[in-house]
Amino acid sequence: MQPRDLSAHTPYEAGRGIEETARELGVDPEDLVKLSSNENAWGPSPKAVVAIREAAAAVHAYPKASHADLQAALADRFDVADGQVWLANGGDGALDYLARALLAPGDEVLVPEPGFAYYAMSARFHHGRVNEYPLRKAEDFEQTAEGVLDAYDGERVVYVTSPHNPAGTEMPPDEVRALADRTNDDTLVVVDEAYGEFSETPSAVSLLGERDDVAVLRTFSKAYGLAGCRLGYAVVPDDWADAYARVNTPFAASEIACRAGLAALEDDDHVERTVEGARESREYMYEHLDCPTWESGGNFVLAEVGDGTRVFEAAKREGVIVRDTTSFGLPECVRITCGTPEMTERAVGTVNDLL
Ligand code: PMP
């Protein structure tokens, strides 16, 4: 007995794990610098860690109150109704809910190329078909409504990543509005703001008060440092609460995740420190990397190193893990996550030595 034919589905290629690499190199994980998955180099909020410890005593129960509390806290923060916050098992889970709620078999979606792989994966899981719009290196990966509309052909969902992974470019709300104005009434524009906290561009959530064809994706994995908890959410149009009740996987956002999220959300200082640290790290990389880089709104920098796989492999042997962007269709680049000054200096020094 075998699963159905899954040859159309491509496995997700995650950034290299620190334990995995330490074992391969026969070194202590402490000696490695991991800047490959855009995690929070400053760790989680200490308040979230306390909340996780406390939640451990309550894990025999299904997460109901904590889920509602977190929905309410996020709704308050974004000035939307509680039902507009679709909590999920990571931003990836929220993408699945959107695909589940929007796509009928054979419906098409439009994704950026290069771009985050899970849009296409999620659409295919939900029997959707995937078309691409280009972000061009020659145009510094600029994101405009016009550029997306050139490729748009009535797709049901259009994904925009702002800040973009891996290029770091952004699409401000006015441009998202211009895009949504010119797509069909039954096209949803999903603005993925997984890295939104690191950017100075306002959130596209501000558009939700005026229209029902935009949704915004956010996560606790990046600025909040809770990637291991798997907690993300979509902020959706006004009257979609019923759809959430119909498409969500029961209790997919765990008690531990919801309680950690609530505590992290209250710790503005930790987020501010993280964002400030990431900005300093970005600036250091622009200034000190001896190769072309692109200005980034996220907690990472794309660097053109010539042969990304060679630099990735050689840097790893030096104990520095960066992201080879070959799987993004950018074999000449690596993506380096922002880190503490020590981590950044070591990564930049290592990469420069390999150029
Ligand atoms: N969107 C983008 C652009 C990402 O880079 C990521 C994480 N790699 C996600 C969404 C999803 O993150 P998570 O599932 O950890 O919330």
Automatic annotation (TrEMBL):
SUPFAM superfamilies, per database record: PLP-dependent transferases
Cofactor field: pyridoxal 5'-phosphate
Pathway: Amino-acid biosynthesis; L-histidine biosynthesis; L-histidine from 5-phospho-alpha-D-ribose 1-diphosphate: step 7/9
Entry's Gene Ontology molecular function annotations: histidinol-phosphate transaminase activity
Keyword terms of this UniProt record: Amino-acid biosynthesis, Aminotransferase, Histidine biosynthesis, Pyridoxal phosphate, Transferase
Known catalytic reactions: L-histidinol phosphate + 2-oxoglutarate = 3-(imidazol-4-yl)-2-oxopropyl phosphate + L-glutamate
The protein's name in its UniProt record: Histidinol-phosphate aminotransferase
Species this chain originates from: Halosegnis marinus
